[in-house]
């Protein structure tokens, strides 16, 4: 099968498999558990890896992780090495999707683990869409928030979930995460350590929660999706500049913020919340729309956000000066900035944001990815994706 000029591996079409309720009583107790032993279908796990992430560290760490992944998931899935023909190996090589291990094909509960190394921007989106179309049990993002962002966008196509384009509608592909990138801010909301082995344990257990996703629309009408935090004005501009300094690790966010401040002017913005009347907010420094809590390398910018509650937390900073960030930076990291003057927080399901004078471009980004300028509308899609938690 070809997709965007890329030959892809056809995975087995899935059948419905049994779901049981987990008895977990933790903060995220609304899980569904899928046990490979109880299933009568083959499990196809696709790992989408950005080998250049974190200045190449992601690729190196992934290679080190493979033996543990094979041993851990191999035990659960009864895996045996693949013995593919030369022609099959060439086909796998060209599409970027490599079958690493496959269980005994005589077993109804066989399991296939595939890796796909991304070759450039938006490649992870294409890989994810094709994996979902072909019935993958889960697509796991291996990298930072940028890779996760692309994989999440791959769950949607033409303004609706990829799975909705399948008239049979018998299967749900889950989203997974192995944090190996620069920021890994989304993982912090769930309290996950930046530990890839711990992430593999989550994947092996197969606990799932339905999480919310944000959707952004602009004048072009094209939809863009985010899972963590979208932001406007100074913080978005800082993120735009920070992307140039990823070689410095989390320090890139500080460098980006300093550079953004050199050209920054607070702006009056108008906003419409949940379809209500337009409201004017004067001298806005930054506006953050949180589906989750953290961004910018650990700043707890929207501390009350919860990707399971169907709402965004919107935090608005007004009339901040450069020295405010210096003296109040620690509050941004520990989430106590909501007590500071000129900081507003509210819970919303949708918000539209526009400039008032339209004289200058106000930056917009989501999950650290630059999207352009205002105007934009942000809406939450409640329980949009199954996530391995």
TrEMBL record:
InterPro entries reported for this sequence: ATP-NAD_kinase_N, Diacylglycerol/lipid_kinase, Diacylglycerol_kinase_cat_dom, Lipid_Phosphate_FormReg, NAD/diacylglycerol_kinase_sf, YegS/DAGK_C
Does Hydrolase appear among the keywords? no
Q: Name one GO cellular component term.
A: membrane
Keyword hit for Nucleotide-binding: yes
Do you know which PROSITE patterns this protein is assigned to?
DAGK (PS50146)
Any one Pfam family match given in the protein's UniProt record, by short name = YegS_C
What is the protein name for this chain?
DAGKc domain-containing protein
Q: Which organism is it from?
A: Nyssa sinensis
Lineage per the UniProt record: Eukaryota, Viridiplantae, Streptophyta, Embryophyta, Tracheophyta
């Amino acid at each position: 099968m070809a997709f965007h000029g890329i030959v892809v591996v056809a995975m087995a079409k899935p059948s419905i498999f049994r779901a049981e309720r987990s008895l977990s009583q933790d903060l995220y107790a609304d899980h569904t558990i899928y046990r490979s032993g109880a299933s009568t279908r083959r499990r196809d796990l696709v790992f989408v890896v950005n080998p250049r992430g974190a200045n190449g560290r992601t690729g190196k760490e992934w290679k080190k992780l493979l033996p543990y992944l094979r041993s851990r998931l191999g035990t659960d899935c009864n895996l045996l090495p693949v013995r593919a023909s030369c022609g099959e190996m060439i086909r796998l090589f060209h599409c970027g999707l490599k079958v690493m291990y496959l269980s005994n094909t005589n077993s109804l509960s066989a399991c296939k683990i595939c890796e796909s190394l991304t070759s450039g921007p938006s490649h992870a989106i294409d890989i994810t869409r094709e994996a979902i179309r072909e019935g993958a049990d889960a697509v796991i993002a291996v990298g930072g928030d940028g890779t996760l962002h692309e994989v999440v966008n791959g769950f949607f196509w033409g303004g609706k979930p990829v799975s909705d384009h399948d008239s049979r509608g018998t299967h749900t592909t889950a989203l997974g995460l192995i944090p190996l990138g620069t920021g890994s801010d989304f993982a912090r909301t769930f309290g996950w350590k930046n530990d890839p082995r711990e992430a593999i344990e989550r994947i092996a257990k197969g606990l799932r929660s339905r999480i919310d996703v944000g959707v952004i629309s602009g004048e072009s009408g094209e939809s863009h999706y985010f899972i963590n935090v979208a932001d406007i004005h100074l913080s978005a501009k800082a993120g735009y500049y920070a992307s140039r300094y990823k070689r410095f690790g989390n320090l890139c966010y500080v460098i980006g913020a300093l550079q953004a401040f050199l050209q920054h002017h607070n702006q009056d913005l108008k906003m419409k919340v949940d379809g209500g009347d337009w409201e004017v907010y004067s001298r806005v420094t930054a506006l953050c729309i949180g589906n989750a809590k953290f961004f910018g390398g650990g700043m707890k910018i929207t501390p009350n956000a919860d990707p399971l509650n169907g709402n965004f937390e919107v935090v608005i900073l007004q009339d901040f000066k450069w020295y405010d960030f210096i003296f109040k930076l620690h509050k941004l990291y520990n989430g106590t900035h909501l007590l500071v003057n000129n900081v507003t927080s509210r819970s919303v399901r949708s918000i539209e944001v526009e400039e008032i004078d339209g004289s200058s471009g106000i930056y917009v980004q989501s999950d650290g990815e630059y999207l352009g300028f205002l105007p934009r509308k942000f809406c939450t899609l409640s329980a949009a994706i199954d996530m391995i938690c």
